[in-house]
Specification:
Blueprint: H1 4-12, H2 22-27, H3 34-41, H4 43-54, E1 65-66, E2 74-75, E3 80-81, H5 83-96, E4 100-105, E5 111-115, H6 116-132, E6 140-143, H7 149-161, E7 164-167, H8 174-184, E8 188-192, E9 194-197, E10 200-203, H9 205-210, E11 217-221, E12 234-236, H10 237-243, E13 253-254, E14 258-264, E15 272-277, H11 279-291, E16 301-304, H12 311-323, E17 327-331, H13 342-350, E18 354-357, H14 359-368, H15 371-374, E19 383-387, H16 393-403, E20 410-413, E21 424-425, E22 440-441, E23 447-450, E24 463-467, E25 477-478, H17 482-489, E26 498-506, E27 512-517, E28 521-524, E29 527-530, H18 531-539, E30 544-554, E31 558-567, H19 575-588, E32 597-600, H20 614-621, H21 636-651
Parallel strand pairs: 4-17, 6-7, 6-8, 7-14, 8-11, 11-12, 16-17, 16-18, 18-19, 19-20, 31-32
Antiparallel strand pairs: 1-2, 3-13, 4-5, 9-10, 14-15, 15-25, 21-22, 23-24, 24-26, 26-27, 28-29, 30-31
The structure holds 5'-O-[(S)-butoxy(hydroxy)phosphoryl]adenosine (WT7).
């Protein structure tokens, strides 16, 4: 028998568009189209106004966009500022030092309220600790930390001295950390003794040592107390703070001074070092955090459930909220530990008013059932957001109904590591939301859906998403790889049209419906991965001859990793080898990249020139009729693979 909730969901599925809830719109900061219009009349002038209005500058910029050398754009280039000053000092100087910046909640229920003044104190000391070791402007500092306040301290200390942070998501393997430290020539690494996950502790510093990471200094945060080897060049983070001077004046940096590198997967095995700079990035994240989330810093309690190791964490856990003087929740643990209601427990406990998460998390909560949120008072929530992948209307409606109690608008925010900040969404007090559509380009942003030749396609027609005007938060290059920057984003449609890599369609109202990636990039639970990177990890196993990885549609995670693997002659595909290969991928890249399915194949479908036809593998994995097979060298391969997949499905 269908429950009331199911009936209500079914009814709402008929509703195509939800106007801003009245009570919300009454107090919202933006309630009509005037901001979009003002920005459209003079985008560069408008962005300059936002830059000077939202940030404190040592020298205010008079220039907005410099597009004299496309695609190497600059923003606000004659201004100087410091990111950590803007996130901390100016709030403390204005008497807001006692405001809680982070309500940190540990996995075992520990609580720490970290104020703006606390952060400023620690950031100055750690900045001095960096300087004492010769780290300053233009140097790279790696950060490999769990969700603890020290990650914010480390990032802002880098910004204070003009060093770039290079944060690696805690779910990646030490091997990935090593690679990213090497690619970026990092001088120091900030890591932790151990990390906790669902009641267990994993040694982190020891694993980093085992990977042989070659940096001059490794700072180690004492977190779990796990036995930790310390060698030459290793320093306890707390001891470094205690020994350092308490005052550290922020460096006055050019707007285009690099702020950070963040590695992200592309279509080859080598991750891309996406480089963001200071003035433009901060302007866009400050604006979007304030107006997309309709933030009122004095009253709201904001929580973004992402990990700080992804761009979502950089922009909407660290920089956006702190620039705006917001109070946030930071949670160390998993969404189902100690129990599946922990998120809602935290929302109630801290009075969360704005909550930002990923569709995959919503689908997991849906599966667990409404009784978990039902245990808690969620009435303080007034706005919900999603990011990372398209959201299916059913999950959207569940979020709207069960979590938001029909009071809260949902902002579905489309953007990328490369864009720095949110690009496409709805302004919650001004625009209706449509379940499944991200929305329209934000003020100052321009997008177009085009065909392969770059010609705009008619409304409601699928094409390639492009961004047709530079924006302040855009990546400036790929670290030490300008050529790849140009060829990845600016060659297909020229140096003035950014190639996104997503397919989309735009409806009659201008709303963008993002369909998914068009390149060999996977999106598993909103995490970006490259097929080539996973293939190269699998092939590095001594028993493997060849592998092809595809993303397969998955109910829970959006996509999941499926690997077609050909073994070296003498070996047989056993269950033990499946376990071994998954473990191998976890060690090389991280657990998140482990294939969900491994399909043994004597051969792979290839064109006559030897190119693997992943399109056909996707058809097989998803049980579809095969597409065009005329270019296939050996059509018999397909029948064998289809048989294997059917056997696997029968076992599952
Ligand atoms: C890719 C970017 C932005 C931070 C998280 C992911 C997909 C992102 C949405 C959305 C549909 C989305 C796109 C994009 N994506 N947000 N709201 N609706 N798709 O950052 O790892 O750089 O991945 O995520 O495919 O290109 P990322």
């Amino acid at each position: 028998m269908a429950t009331d909730l199911e009936h209500e969901l079914a009814d709402l599925l008929e509703v195509a568009s939800f106007p801003p809830p009245q009570a919300f719109a009454k107090t919202a900061q933006i309630t009509d189209g005037s901001v979009h219009e003002a920005a459209e009349r003079d985008p560069e002038g408008w962005w300059l106004e936002q830059a000077t209005g939202l940030l404190d500058w040592y020298e205010e910029p008079t220039q907005s966009l410099d597009d004299s050398n496309p695609p190497f754009y600059k923003w606000f280039a004659d201004g100087t500022l410091n990111a950590s000053f803007n996130c901390l000092d100016r709030h403390v100087e204005a008497g807001r030092g006692d405001r809680v910046a982070l309500h940190w909640h540990g996995e075992e229920g520990e609580q720490r309220a970290v104020t703006y003044a606390d952060l400023l104190g620690d950031v100055q000391r750690f900045a001095n600790a960096l300087k004492d070791r010769g780290i300053g402007r233009g140097d790279v500092v790696g950060i490999f930390l769990p969700m603890i306040p020290e990650v914010v301290v480390a990032m802002l200390a880098c910004a204070r001295v003009g060093a770039m942070h290079n944060v690696v998501f805690g779910g990646f393997s030490a091997e990935s950390v090593r690679e990213r430290m090497e690619f970026s020539d990092a001088k120091a690494l900030v890591t932790v003794d151990g990390a906790r996950r669902k009641g267990k502790t994993a040694p982190i510093k020891a694993s980093v040592d085992a990977a042989g990471i070659d940096v001059e200094t490794t700072f180690v945060v004492r977190h779990t107390g796990i036995d930790t080897p310390m060698g030459d060049g290793d320093v306890w983070f707390d001891e470094a703070l205690a020994a350092a001077d308490a005052q550290c004046a922020p460096e006055r940096l050019d707007a285009e001074h690099p702020l950070f590198i963040l590695y992200s997967s592309g279509s080859t095995a080598k991750p891309k070092g996406i480089l963001h700079t200071t003035g433009g990035y901060l302007t866009q994240v400050a604006w979007t955090h304030r107006y997309v989330f309709d933030l009122r810093p004095e009253e709201d309690v904001y929580w973004c459930s992402a990990d700080v190791g992804w761009i979502t964490g950089h922009s909407y856990i660290v920089y956006g909220p702190l620039l705006n003087g917001a109070t946030s929740v930071m949670y160390e643990g998993a969404p189902d530990y100690p129990d599946k209601d922990v998120w809602w427990d935290l929302c109630e406990r801290y009075g969360v008013t704005i909550f930002y998460t990923a569709p995959t998390a919503i689908r997991a909560c849906m599966k667990w059932g409404p009784e978990y949120p039902g245990r808690h008072d969620l009435s303080k929530l007034r706005l919900l957001g999603t990011v990372g992948e398209p959201i299916n209307p059913k999950a959207w409606l569940w979020y709207y109904l069960v979590i938001g109690g029909k009071r809260c608008p949902i902002v579905d925010t489309w953007w990328q590591t490369e864009t720095g900040g949110i690009m496409v969404t709805t302004l919650p007090g001004a625009q209706a939301t449509k379940p499944g559509a991200a929305g329209t380009p934000l003020p100052g942003i321009a997008a177009q859906v085009v065909d392969e030749q770059g010609e705009p396609v008619p409304p409601d027609t699928q094409g390639l998403l492009t961004l047709t005007r530079p924006w302040p938060g855009m990546l400036r290059t790929l670290y030490r790889d300008d050529d790849r920057f140009v060829s990845t984003y600016w060659e297909k449609f020229g140096p003035r049209t950014y190639f996104v890599g997503d397919a989309a369609r735009q409806d009659e109202d201008g709303y963008l419906w993002v369909i998914g990636r068009v390149d060999d990039v996977l999106n598993v639970s909103g995490h970006r991965m490259s097929t080539a990177e996973i293939e190269s990890a699998i092939v590095s196993h001594p028993k493997v001859a060849e592998a092809a990885v595809i993303g397969q549609a998955d109910e829970d995670t959006g996509q999941s990793v499926a690997a077609f693997v050909t073994l070296e002659g003498a070996f047989e595909g056993t269950d033990e080898l499946v376990v071994e290969l998954r473990e191998h991928v976890a060690l090389r890249i991280g657990k998140l990249a482990r294939p969900k399915r491994i399909i043994w194949s004597d051969d792979l479908p290839k064109t006559r020139s030897g190119k693997i036809m992943r399109r056909l593998l996707r058809d097989i994995a998803e049980g579809r009729e095969l597409g065009d097979v005329t270019t296939l060298r050996d059509p018999d391969v397909m029948a064998q693979l289809q048989g294997r997949v059917q056997e696997l499905q029968a076992e599952e």
